[in-house]
Amino acid sequence: MLLAATVAIVHAQSFEVASVKPSVIRTTEGGRSRIEYSADRVTMRNVDLKECVQWAYRVEYYQIPAPNSLDGKGYDILAKAAGAVPVSELRRLLQQLLAERFKLTVHRETKTLPVYALTVAKGGPKLPGPNADDGHHAVESLPRVQDGSFLFPESSMAEFAAKLSLLRGMDRPVVDQTGIAGYFDIVLKGAASAILQPDGPSLFTLIPEQLGLKLVATKAPVEIVVIDRAEKASEN
Prior knowledge:
By secondary structure, the protein is α+β, with helices and mostly antiparallel strands. The chain folds into 2 domains: 2-106, no CATH class; 111-221, no CATH class. The protein has 6 helices and 11 strands. The strands form 3 sheets. Strands 1-4-3-2-6 form a 5-stranded antiparallel beta sheet, covered by helices on one side. Strands 9-5-11 form a 3-stranded mixed beta sheet. A 3-stranded antiparallel beta sheet has the order 7-8-10. The longest helix is centred in the middle third of the chain and has 16 residues, at 87-102. The chain starts with a helix and ends in a 7-residue tail after the last strand.
């Protein structure tokens, strides 16, 4: 009984320290956002409310049927827990913070949607070795472009799939069905240049050739998080 009571108390606590401020780089960084988290904190830079909901509820942009930015504003959010907790608890604490500061309320539904399933191609994956897991992770909202290539640093397969969904030529969401765990520094060589050329190789060709993965058109049940209410963030 004592253990149960202790767990309930820990689960009920909010972030020890939390700051929500308007972002000063929203118009200078091309809409790129960055989310970092470790055992006891979450740092969000240049995020809109929809991106906060994505991370807090562990869903992708296409699972939130709302305008891309909701209130159109960018925020910098720094939140620290009292001690080390699982990432699932950090997400729950962020849900609570969004409810307090943005008066956010949501409900969940399930819909069957057309998707591209990211799967392992014949011959197996050709991914780089997984990154060492030091407990600190960072994810950006868009892939980087360098020398005509797309870079997906420190990406899980789910994060990689979500970023593929945003690229030119993708007419439906990409969902991860590879079953591959870990975080990878993924490079799609020449892909950024290729998709701008009318006769260039498509992602449907480059992904199997370079990564040993493939995209399969299908339908799948997808959990939807519906925004019932959201307001401008309250002051710190």
